[in-house]
From TrEMBL:
Protein name: Capsular polysaccharide biosynthesis protein CpsC
Topology class, membrane: Multi-pass membrane protein
Family: Belongs to the CpsC/CapA family.
Keyword Cell cycle: no
Cellular location(s): Cell membrane
Keywords: Capsule biogenesis/degradation, Cell membrane, Exopolysaccharide synthesis, Membrane, Transmembrane, Transmembrane helix
Pathway(s) the chain acts in: Capsule biogenesis; capsule polysaccharide biosynthesis
Location of the Polysaccharide chain length determinant N-terminal domain: 4-94
Domain Tyrosine-protein kinase G-rich: 186-240
GO biological process, one term: polysaccharide biosynthetic process
């Protein structure tokens, strides 16, 4: 079916579908918002920042070269931090019991005294050394692997900056914070062994952020509104294209090439068609009655 719709027809379609566009738009927005809120689990993000910086030399040229080298090596660090060498250790630390020091070790305290037998001063222990005390804490989590961490962890940097950020997205804000801090701690220890240089330090630890970063409910609701409006408009266009009724007399004369014999005016609605037919039959059997007494609307008898 090849039909062309001009701008005036589109405007008419828009006017006729305006109420439907409002209703379907509101329904689409509500369905998208509450559907996303009920079906999509919210995700929270925590991040920790690390600084790449080595001990600076007094020479300004050496300092500049060292800074440029640190900036360039960040790309290597970004690749290492998402590798199993770091993530497996972090996952093992998060899922294994940890030994936590509760009391620091104390050194022995020595005093001096004069030995009358030997005639010399000698040291003696006034307070014995005390070893550090530890306690075993249960594992924080039990269902994390290196592959799970690889899906959660990402690294971002700013141009010409010696600071890079470890970002973690998870459905639990506390777990996202713990993973970010653990990955940063493990990386800080591992990189000294891997690169034979200790130039990474944590500048800010991750904290629990209870504001979800996804799903973006406002954006999803806006998309639902637009989809509802488009559906209503398309429905109006389909009705217009598939409508075969003649709305303009010019279509009869110009497109079909027929002759216009006249126009039949609108006839008012009859309340009871069956009763009107019965009355017409009775009047037909009695031709003496006046035709104008029937209940049918009469056609004008004017002749042209």
């Amino acid at each position: 079916m090849d039909r062309q719709i001009d701008f005036s027809q589109l405007w008419n379609v828009f006017k006729r579908s305006f109420i439907a566009m409002i209703i379907l738009g509101i329904l689409g927005m509500a369905a998208a918002y509450f559907g996303a809120k009920a079906l999509i689990a919210p995700k929270y993000e925590s991040d920790t920042s690390l600084l790449v910086n080595r001990k600076q030399d007094n020479d300004p040229n050496m300092q500049l070269n060292a800074q440029q080298a640190d900036i360039q090596i960040i790309n290597t660090y970004k690749d290492i931090i998402t590798r199993p060498v770091v993530l497996e250790t972090a996952a093992n630390d998060l899922t294994s019991p940890q030994r936590v020091m509760t009391k620091k070790a104390k050194k022995a305290v020595y005093g001096t005294r004069y030995n009358a037998t030997t005639g010399v001063r000698e040291e003696y222990v006034t307070e014995k050394a005390q070893p550090a005390q530890y306690k075993l804490t249960p594992a924080k989590y039990s269902n994390l692997s290196a592959d799970d961490l690889a899906k959660m962890v990402s690294v971002s940097t700013q141009q010409n900056s010696q600071v890079f950020t470890v970002n973690v997205k998870d459905t639990n804000a506390i777990r996202a914070r713990d993973i970010a801090n653990e990955v940063a701690k493990v990386f800080e220890k591992k990189i000294a062994t891997i690169m034979s240089i200790s130039n990474v330090s944590v500048v800010s630890k991750a904290t629990a952020n209870w504001t979800p970063v996804s799903p973006r409910l406002n954006m999803i609701a806006l998309i639902g509104l637009v989809v509802g409006v488009i559906i209503a408009l398309m429905w109006g266009l389909v009705r217009e294209i598939t409508d075969q009724t003649i709305k303009n007399i010019d279509f009869i004369t110009d497109d079909l090439g027929l002759v216009n014999l006249g126009i039949v005016s609108y006839v008012q609605h009859m309340n009871d068609m069956d009763q009107a037919i019965e009355d017409a039959k009775v009047k037909k059997q009695d031709p003496s009655d006046d035709l104008e007494s029937t209940d049918f609307p009469q056609r004008s008898r004017r002749r042209i």
